[in-house]
Write a structure and sequence with these properties.
The protein is α/β, with parallel strands linked by helices and about 325 residues long. Helix content is about 30%, strand content about 10%. The chain contains eleven helices and eight strands.
Length: about 325
Amino acid sequence: MRDTWPLLEPIQFPAISRRSVTTLQVNFGYRCNQSCVHCHVNAGPNRTEEMAGETVGLVLAVLARRRIATLDLTGGAPELNPHFRRLVHAARELGVKVIDRCNLTILEVPEQAGLAEFLAGEQVEITASLPCYLEANVDRQRGKGVFAVSVRALRRLNALGYGRDGSGLVLNLVYNPQGPSLPPPQAGLEADYRRVLGESYGVQFNNLFTLANMPIQRFGASLIAKGEFERYIALLRSAHRDDNLASVMCRDLISVDWQGYLFDCDFNQMLDLPLAAHRQEGDRTHLSALLDDGFASQSIRVAGHCFGCTAGRGSSCGGALKDAAE
């Protein structure tokens, strides 16, 4: 689904380049046990794409050769890939920090027995999507009953030590707006999450990350269908801040798709914009190239969707870039 690309391609965005790769973000596949409205991957239960064991082995070789500090696992639901636990365990043995972008409901899938305990045992940092602290809003965005399952999953993680001071087990939550609007200030919203989730459900967590919805894939198609695409792009462009350019995630990250091809970020991956470095027209750069080349100082492919990362307080996989911004 590339419905928005013809509208995004002509939009000019400031030129940026990569510094060095400190994070390898791996999309393990597009299969998911949910189909969320805001999903920029268009993931769902009927998707079949998933990373093969041979490519997983290459991920580990790259982590070791380039001494990359962080492995960021995403999907779909990355845990559904049969090689997920093997990769996590081997990466942790290399001393690599592992982040699991977890949708929480996966912890109650029968085939995933022991998943929460496995993540805790490997000291995996969990970044979990919970787009609101109100049940009605979450169920509207992610499906009926999702909020209740998510709360049960959070309590289970808390019982294992996640989100609790001194445990070393980090639990982050992720907020996405309900529609075509910018996220509110991260600090204030985090305080609201702590108050409501703590008082009503006894849930604890470490950090809240606020992310803007990207005008691509399922969310982008929804904007077009509702006649809201141009207004949302105008909002992002008008709220752009040049000082966010220094902190966008693509400056220190490379994204790997399920086939092992490289992209500047997960959003470019979903738009099928391969890494520009060392590529000829029509060619793609494979993960194997990272064994010998760190791709430092290479230009990053940009277009109109990039304003989703630099608008307002900024938005990245680690939340707001400038939460103190006015």
